[in-house]
Design goal:
The protein is an alpha/beta fold. The chain has 16 helices and 25 strands. Bound molecules: NADP nicotinamide-adenine-dinucleotide phosphate and magnesium ion. NADP nicotinamide-adenine-dinucleotide phosphate binds next to helix 7 and helix 8.
């Protein structure tokens, strides 16, 4: 894949150039080499994609299929994801910096698994639910309710997990019979475009699945505010999420937001320190820390801080930092110069505010790192919960350790955040850990592990980490409306009700 690949948008089942004729370059963060170009879309491209989604929805070509028929297409798509796993994983890694070891295993399994399980859960959901309620003032009526698609959905995704975060939106939207327009992040759009081919080959009809590419600030913003969008699902920064929620209010769009986080890890005094070191490293180093639910506020008993940090540093020293395409690499580059700059800024602020640097704190620039965006794993100790780098999302390999002496105080500090995405407890006492998990105001709590997302378990945030849930049965609820149908089965049934309510049958 050394040649520059030229992608087009996918609208109404066709590969199509953007109307402006302009393109954007996609680079490999390890080398800064251009990997691909995609169209720089404009507002008219958004209109075209939404028209195609609307027409396909109104035609009933997908919405009127049975859930079993739609589920079969999604399951076939899951098989095609597995059949194309080398290509998908290579492209995901080349553009997002995901280590190839991870993308070929975890990402492919998550994408195929989400398609499969979402299809199966959709099939198992009750198609119709009934009730029989017949008080004396009303004739016997048949009352039932069922789920229907919302209509035209839009999905806007970030650069950190382009495939997984796209499929979290696409699978439930399609399973419930919606049409959808996806706008991937401008620096990682290619695997979402690859999904268009897979879904089309699996049998998703033209117009039901569309992908447009272009700048979020202009085109994404226009998409998010568009009256033709019935539901929007966004993953990204809290700042843009707030704008989208505001725009959605204008036409009362259904909204799912998965935003930032600053997730707390509570290491308890009874924790196994080896388990704690592994959990804390997993929490902040997976994908070089560019994960919304990264565990980046580490609360540890004061007496255990030194031991835990020493263990973590010893393990970091054995990690291989390098080109993400090398199977031996544990930590790849961060995604962009922007992200590198952000990390550098927060580390500088951390030092200025008095946090002690126990490890790292610099960009890697020599030898194999010369061309890429590499940042050393970084640990600050003796932090407190009010420091800027402890409160704000950094999105890089930076851990802030906060010593505590009282576990109730630690829980209060853990909850003292605008975010509420992930949280975790490290303990050898299962029931104590579960009781504390209930006290964390976060959408997910991991006990003695981190980052485990499952297609059959809900994922989402409390507080400013967003609202709505992706994955599982809950995501299917978020991509459907429920309609109650109430039918009088008797010839003169309404008489009783009319005389009672408006007296008009005298
Ligand atoms: P972002 O600005 O929120 O971008 C996410 C997506 O939204 C991209 O597709 C982007 O398009 C699009 N977008 C940008 N502005 C928009 C607007 N006004 N209306 C509609 N769509 C818009 O995130 P970022 O700038 O890439 O990263 C900034 C910070 O966000 C990170 O440092 C991190 O803290 C956080 N973040 C969180 C997550 C998460 O998983 N929760 C993921 C990524 C980043 P373009 O790519 O064309 O700009
Ligand atoms: Mg942005």
């Amino acid at each position: 894949m050394s040649n520059i690949m030229e992608y087009q948008m996918f609208i109404n089942g066709q590969w199509t150039p953007g109307l402006s004729g302009e393109t954007m370059e996609v680079i490999n963060p390890a080398t800064r080499e251009v990997v691909a170009t995609v169209p720089r879309g404009c507002r008219e491209d958004v209109d075209r994609a939404l028209n195609s989604a609307r027409s396909s929805f109104e035609s009933g070509i997908w919405a009127n299929k049975s859930v079993e028929e739609r589920a079969k297409v999604l399951m076939d798509a899951a098989m095609l994801v597995v059949a194309n796993k080398e290509r998908l994983a290579q492209l995901e890694s080349l553009t997002s910096g995901a280590t190839i070891r991870r993308s070929t295993t975890v990402d492919i399994a998550e994408v195929a698994g989400t398609l499969l399980l979402t299809a199966m859960i959709a099939k198992e959901m009750p198609k119709v639910e009934h009730t029989f309620f017949s008080p004396p003032w009303i004739a016997p009526m048949h009352s039932f309710w069922k789920r229907e698609p919302i209509g035209v959905c839009a999905g806007i995704t970030p650069w950190n997990f382009p495939l997984i975060l796209a499929i979290f939106k696409i699978a439930p939207a399609l399973a419930m019979g919606n049409s959808i327009v996806m706008k991937p992040a401008s620096i990682t759009p290619v695997t979402t475009l690859e999904l268009a081919k897979i879904l089309s080959d699996a049998g998703v009809p033209p117009g039901v699945f569309n992908v447009i590419t272009g700048p979020g600030s202009s085109m994404g913003n226009y998409l998010a505010g568009h009256p033709e969008v019935d539901k929007i699902a966004f993953t990204g920064s809290t700042e843009v999420g707030k704008q989208i929620a505001g725009q959605a209010a204008e036409t009362i769009k259904r909204v799912t937001l998965e935003l930032g986080g600053k997730s707390p890890i509570l290491v308890l005094d009874d924790a196994d320190m080896e388990v704690a070191a592994n959990m804390c490293l997993l929490g902040f180093l997976f994908h070089s820390g560019q994960v919304c639910e990264s565990g980046t506020r580490l609360f540890v008993p004061s007496s255990k801080q030194d031991e835990l940090v020493e263990r973590m540093i010893a393990k970091i020293k054995k990690m291989v930092i390098g080109n993400q395409m090398d199977i031996e690499t544990d930590l790849g580059p961060v995604v962009s110069q922007n992200q590198l700059d952000t990390i550098g800024r927060y580390v500088k602020v951390g030092r200025e505010e008095g946090a002690q640097l126990a490890y790292g704190g610099r960009q890697l620039t020599d030898g194999i790192y010369e061309k890429g965006f590499y940042y050393e794993p970084t640990i600050f100790v003796n932090c407190h919960n009010k420091m800027t780098q402890v409160r704000e999302e950094i999105f890089g390999p930076v851990q802030c350790v906060i010593p505590y002496d009282d576990v109730d105080e630690a829980v209060a500090m853990a909850n003292d955040s605008i975010y509420g995405l992930g949280g975790g407890i490290c303990s050898t006492n299962a029931s104590r850990a579960q009781k504390l998990a209930a006290r964390l105001r976060t959408g997910t709590v991991w006990i003695n592990t981190w980052h485990v997302l499952r297609p059959d378990a809900p994922f989402g945030g409390y507080k400013q980490s967003g609202y709505g849930r992706e994955c599982s049965y809950h995501s299917l609820m978020a991509y459907s409306e429920v309609k109650h149908i109430c039918q009088d089965l008797t010839p003169d049934g309404n008489d009783k009700l009319m005389s009672l309510l408006i007296g008009s049958n005298r």
